[in-house]
Amino acid sequence: MAHTLPEHPAKLWRNPEPKRSYDVVIIGGGGHGLATAYYLASEHGIRNIAVLEKGWLAGGNMARNTTIIRSNYLWDESAAIYEHALKLWERWPDELDYDFLFSQRGVLNLAHSLQDVRDSVRRVSANKLNGVDAEWVDPDEVAKICPILNTSHDTRYPVLGATWQPRAGIAKHDHVAWALARRCDQLGVDLVQNCEVTGFLKDGDRVVGVQTERGPIRAGRVGMAAAGYSSVLAEAAGFRLPVQSHPLQALVSELLEPVHPTVVMSNHVHVYVSQAHKGELVLGAGIDAYNSYTQRGSVHTIEHQMAAAIELFPIFASAHVLRTWGGIVDVCPDASPIIGPSPLEGLFVNCGWGTGGFKATPGVGSVFAHTIAMGKAHPLAEPYGLERFTTGALIDEHGAAGVAH
Amino acid sequence: MTANSERLPEGGRIDRTKPLRATVDGIEILGYRGDTVASAMLANGIRTVAPSLYRSRPRGILGAGNEEPNALVRVERRGSSPMLPATTVELTEGLPVHTLSGIGALEPNSEAKDLDTRFAHTDVLVVGGGPTGLAAALAASEGDARVLLLDDQPELGGALLRGTDAELLDWAGGAAELLRARPEVTVVSRCTAFGYYDENYLLAVERGETLDRQRLWKIRAHHVVLATGANERPIVFAGNDLPGVMLADATRAYVNRYAALPGSEAVIATTNDTAYEAALDLAAAGVSVRAIVDSRAEPPEDLAAMACQAGIEVLADCVVAEATGTDSVAAVRIVRFEQPRRTVRTIRADLLAVSGGWSPDVGLFSQSGGKLRWNETLAAFLPEHSRQRQHIAGAARGRYGFARCVADGRFAGVSAAESCGYPAPDSPLRPGISERATRVETEQRPVWIVPAETGKPAEWREHFVDLQRDATVADIARACGAGMRSPEHIKRYTTIGTGSDQGRTSGLTAVGVLAWLRGMGSPGALGTTSFRAPAVPVSFELLAGRDTGKLLDPVRTTPIHPAHRELGAEFENVGQWKRPWYYAREGEGMHEAVLRECAAARTGVAMMDASTLGKIDLIGPDAGEFLNRLYTNGFKKLAIGSARYGVMCGCDGMVFDDGVVLRLSENHYTLTTTTGGAAGVLDWFEEWLQTEWIELDVWATSVTEQWSTVAVVGPRSREVIGAIAPELAVSNAEFPFMTVRETVLGNGIPARIVRVSFSGELAYEVNVANWHGLAAWREIERAGAGFGITPYGTETMHVLRAEKGFPIVGQDTDGTVTPIDLGMDWIVSKRKDFIGKRSLSRPDTARADRKQLVGLLPDEHGTLIPEGSQLIGEHTPVTPEVAPVPMLGHVTSSYHSAALGRTFALALLRSGRERIGQTVRTPVGDRLVSATVTEPIFYDKEGARRDG
Amino acid sequence: MLLIECPWCGQREETEFRYGGQAHVDYPSAPAETGDTEWAEFLFYRDNPAGPFAERWMHAAGCRRWFNAVRDTRTNEFLGVYRIGEGQPA
Q: Which residue pairs from B170-174 have beta carbons closer than 8 angstroms and sit at least 24 positions apart in sequence?
């Protein structure tokens, strides 16, 4: 008999009708929107909040990611915000009183070329000095951590070693969202589903509310947490964002007896995989190159993904793809997010997380809530403003973020 | 239970001349060719499979196809899979079958299967070989259209195979024969389409009779006809998961197609007409059918009469409230449909055949972007609007009954052929199909749930909705009570529909139960959850195809590769290339080999295969102008016969690639790129030429694989070049640095020799046509033998260039480094514009305290700082546990130097040039190592060695 | 897998092509005189509509020509392809 999953609470949320006015309206009822509302209500004393979701709560990228959590990013600015997030992840199961299956089983980021090795050592060295747990491990140690990995020399791109972050791991994404939604609801936040924002109410250059499918809603401040749809919203508000929306695909296998003890990621061979609590393998594929809002990508991307998975994990050959799906990720030119004020007063943006959004959820909530409440960027968000695209002070995480997240 | 004890003495579509033996959980069973594992189990009296996953409840076989949620098995055979439905595995001789509780196990070293991929382009693709699909394929192929018909069974006929109507089966056989005879028709059996993507691109898996053979079909069709049929739905009542509860149509399949008895005393529970056929077929097979429980107040009279004639009682306006029994169904309790639901009767039975109505199989349609709409009469979501060039026909769009399916399929086939430009001659439905078979279903009375008489829905833990996931009405009620409204939330909360059966028997049922719980009339307003590929599970290895192992990514080698192997080179992967990394001799490790190779280059002569460098020919009157716009320095005025080093930036001003440009004639330049950057640079050139500067008359051609290049390096290289190229004047005056000469080598090979140096030593690059590459290498080796010429690899190349402070793009840069950061101000033109120049004056890019390339000399001469190590200030406290430690940059390159007799490094360091002479520190293992910041040049600063 | 019509070669599989992002973004005629803000627009800001999108493709494994296409990003449906220098179809 398989592990049974923890039972969910009997009460999660109300389904309120939207009011005509709120102190803060958050656009987007995904992880970021819910976490932001949670911190606004719990830490900034703002209770008159609505989270507006165009579909069902947490039905966008929150329901579509591969649930990997880690903070071993290269640049100081990235390490700071992701580590902030990881520390909050470690508190959340108790704080939110919800067992969302947070499992710190560690992550291996594999190196397959000499340049991969240099980049990995560089990242580990930076992580250690930034207070992020990280180690460089050689192929023998890799094999000990994850015995099913093919670490032999006789492969097309042998594993030359890996970075290892023991505190990294996975969490059940849906349950995280429900934990947040429940707590938001308890704090009096209105979670309004099936309520798409179609425009903004403006008073000059100041945003004073939103137009929705269900009528206008006024707001003291508005926060955008709409991931792939950020450009569309920005256009409606009258400004541009340096993001492009792409499909990102993922897939799961059938339920399998436990075989994979950790999280493995390889930028070079393009694979990232973990085994969820129920037993399914969860794999992410690459981003499709073209812009799209279709929530589906091209199947050849999945085919490459399978070839890469078998290369690294020969034992996966006979596993089955049970379900594939796509999310829409909004990607910045430097593969880092945008958090901060928008060109319009009263409107704040949080977008451009690309493939990194889930793992940042608590960090975003805390930092974006602070930004909205104070009317200016949280110190951890300061480097992530729109100005950086003009000054050139980019935070280029392509190397660290690459394909895999 | 005895072998084949439940096998009917005659009938079925099994081949009784081909008996087979297999084992299920170690028990031997007998079967025939044509059996599935499930039908053979039933024929041998095995009705119970492995217990359920979470609650360990006894379970039986529910279905007869890929809808099966319970009967999951693992087969210990070559090509086995972790978990398959027993209803889809064909019985073969000696098959060892183990039943599974919904979770499979991966086995290491499972033997490879025979897997392949086939591409197909077709005018019309028909998915499904039942009456609709056969009619569609027949009609579509009456003109000249190319038609591909896929069917997932070993035999064509679809739902007809579950019946006994000889006339219809003959029709199917005739249709199959006709199709196979048509030259433009391809019929593929055992082939399941599982993915429907943009522009009528479909994937399908074709299985062999045995499990170890599979083929992935990749199909692009002009027009698609989906004839995917419909799936029968179960009914939710207490104990509906007991072994013995079976879909009514599945019971027909077992008695009619497989001649296997699923039980001996049966009750039929239905909401519609179709289960009457099951009742009659079961009765005809000798099963004692005790009653038909029909939810409708007035079942159609003709059906009721037929039942009566067969001695079957029809209990109208009734539903099954409960199946009871310890390990399997023993009795069925029947109640009135209307409130109060008083018990009408309890009937002893070991088989309860249920039909909760039919759901058209719209998975592929929905994947293709098609929209669905609820149909109240049929109690189903039906296709409404196609987004692609397709028809969906027959039962898949709620057209039930043979004649309607055939007519609908025919229409779809004709339309499909027409849309491809092949009008089909109009011929009517084949005569001989009697009206009797065209009966159209009458109204049904949907029953999503038969509530328990006591308790609240949140307590109904024996009303099962998803048998594979062990999820019940209680789970849905709980989700609903928690505030969830969307079927997507319900699915995630309860995990209903996420099993390997893809929720075929649970998806819509769950929505129906949700609608009932919410007091809604029907599930119409709630919609379904998304249908996603694959429609049936497919193995990783099938999708990966042959692009695994060595074929994961092509291996590129140079023509000189055999020589490297002979010399015992260790290879490094650089992009797709295999490059010699170092050549260790007997007793040497990498360290010793590299020191020896370096010493040879600095004191004698050494040679390296440089063929992997990207090479691009630029030809045209505007080639010089074009180069001027792309490189940071000028090339328009480069003298013919001369060479110049150049750097390119992206629009953002960051270094993107570098190389040497030769001018061969007025309008002909040729240039090198980094090994990894070759394709990107050509793309870059073509993009600018085609999309921005279309007025420039320049042609860019990759010649990377047209030329082999051997670098000859060291103080004695001139003598080697003189020896191989007798016609060439090699003195410094006659062949100066950064010039190029065309000559013919002594062995008759034409060569282009360039005097360039990536080591600071006197050096040449000998370029020859690719097919002469190996011969040129051997010639240089021969000529250099007397001088002790030493082959060297990429590691030595890196050391030599680092000693001179030459950066490697991609190692000493990372996309955030400008030419100024590299200290290459001298190469950045002040006069002309170039791509990226504007970006250099952006506020952040123009800052003086950017990270700059510097040298580092560790205080301990023998300590090698690992490449990648971060640098911190001399007095910075290292307390990351308190707060992040401020970092100044990182080590990009680090080596032991034979020439310097010590270690050294290159680094990108904040305000690096200002810090020259200062000390920085870096963690190495558990300690901190100090190093002095220097100019990024360590050897022959004056450049005295360049000319030999 | 998209099916893309190269205006020179006809319909080919997506895997033969390289994506080039938004079409009709001109290189600034006088970069030196372009302000930081406008330069940033050129470098990093591209349209990202949910709907018809004029974009560039290159037939990398074919004729290696760049061309433009209008595609609906909500459905992936190509509404038209046209050669460089030709106007965007209405």
A: B171/B131, B171/B430, B171/B432, B171/B433, B172/B131, B172/B134, B174/B430
Contact list, C71 vs chain A (CB under 8 Å): 290
| Rg of chain B over all Cα atoms, to the nearest angstrom | 39
Question: What is the distance between the alpha carbons of residues B486 and B527, in angstroms, rounded to a whole number?
Answer: 9
CB B67 within 8 A of CB B61: no
Q: How far apart are the first and last CA of chain B?
A: 95
Burial per residue of B110-124, b for 16 or more beta-carbon CB atoms within 10 angstroms, e otherwise: beebebebeebebbb
Indicate the CATH number of B234-356 among 3.50.50.60, 3.40.50.720, 2.40.10.340, 3.40.50.1100: 3.50.50.60
Instruction: With H, G, I as helix, E, B as strand and everything else as coil, classify residue B914.
Output: helix
Name residues whose C-beta falls within 8 Å of residue B586's C-beta, 6 or more positions apart in sequence: none
Domain B561-611+706-801 has CATH 1.10.4160.10: no
Residue B904 makes CB contacts below 8 A (sequence gap 6+) with B802, B803, B855, B856, B857, B858, B894, B895, B897, B938
**Cα distance between residue B393 and residue B133, in whole Å:** 8
DSSP B739: B
> If you classify domain A16-65+173-242+333-391 with CATH, what class do you get?
alpha beta
- Among A255, A283, A298, the residue to mutate for chain B (most B Cβ within 10 A): A255
Mean pLDDT of C20-40: 96
Which of C15, C19, C74 minimises the CB distance to A290? C19
d(CA B783, CA B523): 86
Out of C43, C60, C66, closest to residue B652 by CB: C43
Helix axes A357-374, A76-95, angle to 10 degrees: 90
Note the pLDDT tens digit of each residue in A58-114. 999 999 999 999 999 999 999 999 999 999 999 999 999 999 999 999 999 999 999
What are chain A's partners, defined as 3 or more CB pairs within 8 angstroms?
B, C
Confidence at A285, pLDDT banded by 50, 70, 90: confident
Number of domains in chain C: 1
**pLDDT at residue B447 tops 70:** yes
Contact A249, B96 (CB under 8 A): no
Complex ipTM above 0.85? Answer: yes
The candidate with the shortest Cα–Cα distance to A126, out of A75, A181, A160, A186, is A75
Contacts of B107 in chain A (CB under 8 A): 315, 318
- Is B889:B870 a contact under the CB 8 Å cutoff? yes
Closest CB from A241, A243, A291 relative to C55: A291
Return the amino acid letter for A204.
G
What is the length of chain A?
Answer: 405
Cα angle: B279, vertex B47, B294; to 5 degrees: 25
Please count the other Cβ atoms lying within 10 Å of the Cβ belonging to residue B224.
28
CA distance B119 to B225: 19
